[in-house]
Specification:
Blueprint (H helix, E strand, L loop, with lengths): L1 H47 L4 H9 L7 H12 L6 H13 L6 H14 L4 H48 L1
Helix pairs in contact: 1-2, 1-6, 2-3, 3-4, 4-5, 5-6
Amino acid sequence: MIKIIGVLIVIFSGICLGFSKAAREQKKLEQGIDLKRMLYLLQSEIRYGFTPLPEAIASIADKTSDEWKPFLVQVSTQLSSRTEESFSSVWSHALQTHLKGVILEPKFLKDLYSMGETMGYLDKEMQEKTIGFAIEQLEEQIFQMKDGVIKNCKMYRSLGLSFSLLLIILLI
């Protein structure tokens, strides 16, 4: 009876491990899509709303998911406070504070850092182009990730079960 319970626990934990790893892969893709949406919102606020950068960032903070809201609010409040800090330093500090542990894919974080380095001192048209370039980079990375995520999710789920069965065979 104890062996059966042990076997079930090992199988269940292996399946859970595989599904959690697959969920993490799926979350990477969802974050990329969410970031792309956030940048589209920022670009449209600047382009069609003729909104200054701090106000545009504050405006999109209400329209994005709760995952990105603290980051956007911090950037907006620091830019609105009229301190002598540059946009790139405010942006990178907020990324470091709020998104370093949240974003699962390092490439996304790297793209956001590079976008922040060139954003603050540009005119409206160049800001739009910079955001557009960041969106293109995100789209390319998302496109490359899609097939891999589907394959990896299937693989992680089946490996979780396979390894748990292998462990049971080795233990018995």
